[in-house]
Amino acid sequence: MLIARYPREQWDAHANLGEMARFWLSRHLMFRELSVAIEEIAAQFRAGRLPPIEFTRQFVPRLQFLLNQLNVHHQIEDLHYFPIFRAADTELARGFDVLEGDHHHIHVDMARTAETANVLLRALQAGGDPLRRASDNYADASGALLKGLLRHLDDEEDLIVPLILDRGEEALGVAHHGG
């Protein structure tokens, strides 16, 4: 496997890590950081350290942004990058099948997270048991999303970045050109 030839520790310094790969990795980092920030906001609210109005102000735009950006990111990967990478190395086809399957599961988890977040936001007015139940349900849904997403990002990077380092963005047809 290419990951054995190109371990993560070597990626940043490698000459073939071009603009496309750096941008793509920066998007993955943003998804990781934003997911952790959203989880922290929810945890502070659940612990009573964040009032409902402040929770809503911080939580809603971040969650909407994360879910929207993940959707766009996966569309670009599924429709553009994955077919290019799959064609470049047919031995990796099974890996791309798994990644596409992950996208499906992540989107199911995204929908459940959005649904439970909406119930939680509506329950803010009710308080008490309905709010606790809604908060617990959201925590379960977002926890599943975060766990699957973080694993998926690592798996995706471990498959794609070594291929880019091995072949180069230009040869693969994914290099960014111009300003």
Task: Report on this structure.
The chain is mostly helical. The protein has one domain (2-172): Four Helix Bundle (Hemerythrin (Met), subunit A), CATH 1.20.120. Helix content is 83%, strand content 0%. It is built from seven helices and no strands. The protein has helices at residues 2-5, 8-11, 19-46, 52-88, 93-123, 128-167, 169-172. Helix 3 packs antiparallel against helix 4, helix 3 (19-46) packs antiparallel against helix 6 and helix 5 runs antiparallel to helix 6. The longest helix is centred in the C-terminal third of the chain and has 40 residues, at 128-167. The protein is elongated and about 60 Å long. It starts with a helix and ends in a 7-residue tail after the last helix. The mean pLDDT is 95.
Q: What is the topology?
A:
Layout: H1 2-5, H2 8-11, H3 19-46, H4 52-88, H5 93-123, H6 128-167, H7 169-172
Helix pairs in contact: 3-4, 3-6, 4-5, 5-6
